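Section handout 9: paired folding examples.
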Amino acid sequence: MLVHHLQGRSFAEAANMDEATAAATEQMTAETGLNDFFYQRDRERPLAQVLADFQQAHQRLLAALAGVDEARLMAPRHPDDPNSELFIQTVISDTYGHYRQHQQIIRALTA
């Protein structure tokens, strides 16, 4: 959310992927393998580091969102496409909307 949508950098950079991996996963969604890719890539990382990275990223995102004005939030995500979803919808689906999807498994893993 922060790197790709707010800072306008590539998905590859946001996801810490090289360009070849980004190209190979470009058509994937969470349901068609993207989450599996991230799981396989990161599964050996210590839980404490994953949680610390999440908290740090969350705080940086909150700080960045505090500077986004209401007009941008209520504008189409893609300004050249007035039918695209509103930017606020992207924020929701990439933050707490997404967290809810994974809440049970995260709680089970961190218990």
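Moving on to protein 2 of 2.
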Amino acid sequence: MCRTWTGQFPIVVACLATCFFAPTSANAQADVGPQPSNPFSADREVTSVSASPDGLSKTTTRMERVIRDSAGRVRLERGPADYAGSQMVETLHTRDGEIFEASKKELSTVIIIFDCVSGQLVLLQLGLRLARVQPHRAASKDQPRQRYRDPLFAFLGARAVPNLQVEDLGLREFEGIPAHGIRVTHLGTEDVGEWQGKAVSQDEAWASDELAATLLTIRRDFKTGRETRTALMKIDRSEPDPALFEIPANFHINPTPDQIPFILGSERQSPVAH
């Protein structure tokens, strides 16, 4: 829930600040392993399809960016779903008199850097020029290279669980990279009425030992008709720019609420220069 700010802080910036100060879950990294000596960069497309009451379907797509360097550091860029006006800009002010501009897309973009080498997790909010640093699990220099395993694969070979169907989907290639697939279907119990014994939801994952990442996940909710697909695309195995894992020089690190920029009134919006 967003906090109520005094003064002329708009609701959108207050929401961003609240999310920025909230604890960050490492679950965001669950589908990319912090594996050293295995760099890559890729786009990650998240597509959600949901059914509306009138029988029509609505599709939303959000593009993310996933990057891992040879040290095993992982950078995840999360932006908003595409929408009209995302390239418009807002004028932001600071309490010490600085004025700068940021697009609505930048204000909604968050970058998470998982750095097991230094034992830090860094959260960057581009539009607000803020960075939050918190402890993260550190990898020992003598620690052997870990095999990546998507959490869903814990069901393979495990004891049978009532109301669960587990399928081994075998091997498949994505952009020339081999991946192993699994599908887990959840059946309704007697407390869901007409859905008892029927497929209620389903999770599918295709994970690559070679890349140490999950290349495709599909989550289906048969009761609501919603399906979400998350796919890695345009995979580049070259070493990324080291600057992508650094905090920009003009960012406030672990800021206080008074250091968060704000918008004065209703500023006129104009297109971002290209």
